[in-house]
Design goal:
single chain, 71 residues, alpha+beta, two-stranded antiparallel ribbon, globular
Length: 71
């Protein structure tokens, strides 16, 4: 998958470093509200990218243990 945003925009997930991959796997670690008076919450990392990043992390041999990615 080609990243549509961020520091590694237009790079394949296979070519990005592990630390940025883990950031994508955490969905950006926070959410934001779409507008000042809205209750609709949006993630910083879209679900489609999050799902592909988790698959790439598992392909690289990492597993999620207690909220951390470990080999």
């Amino acid at each position: 998958m080609i990243l549509p945003f961020g520091h590694y925009k237009d790079h394949d997930l296979k070519d990005i470093p592990d630390d940025y991959l883990f950031y994508l796997c955490s969905r950006g670690k926070s959410t934001y509200y779409k507008s000042l008076h809205s209750l609709d919450v949006a993630w910083k990392v879209p679900f489609r990218v999050w799902e592909a990043a988790r698959a790439e992390a598992e392909r690289r041999g990492f597993t999620l243990k207690n909220g951390r990615w470990e080999r």
